[in-house]
Amino acid sequence: MTRVIGIDPGTATTGWAVIDEDKKGEIQTVAYGHISTSKDDSDEDRLWEISRDLEKIIKKYAPAEAAIEQIFFFKNQKTIIQVAQSRGAIILTLKQNNVKVASYTPLQVKQALTGYGRADKRQIQEMTKNILKLNSLPKPDDTADAIAIALCHLNSRKMNSLS
Known about the structure:
By secondary structure, the protein is an alpha/beta fold. The protein has one domain: Ribonuclease H-like superfamily/Ribonuclease H (Nucleotidyltransferase, domain 5, 2-Layer Sandwich), CATH 3.30.420. 50% of the residues lie in helices and 22% in strands. Strands 3-2-1-4-5 form a 5-stranded mixed beta sheet. β4, α2 and β5 (100-104) form a beta-alpha-beta unit. α1 (43-61) packs parallel to α2 (77-96), α3 crosses α5 and α4 crosses α5 (141-162). It is globular.
């Protein structure tokens, strides 16, 4: 069995999802959610909270591998630095807990789930719901994105093993 944590980095909201894949290729949802920080806290305190909460998730669910979204392009130049800092804190936390890390661009994630690199948020949410046989769409968007990133990683692992 392979246990993967998918992470959609952010400062205000970091989405996360833990999924398992067994030897037959069956995928099971273990848990998913998000880490929220207060805009009233300092950047340092927000990064500490993300790291601390992620460490609790890692200790509880013991993923062997992690998939995290790469920062690809941001329209809002003000938030790109904060998201990059969050991503750095997340990667450090994963490495400190001996979790292997892989990164994927939003384009790679969209292509892995829908076959179309320009899929919108709703299409990604629908695909994650369908693949994992969830009763409702995962919310917030950051959580759905984290599930999609984890699924992309499992798909990528299969493709790499065929090469």
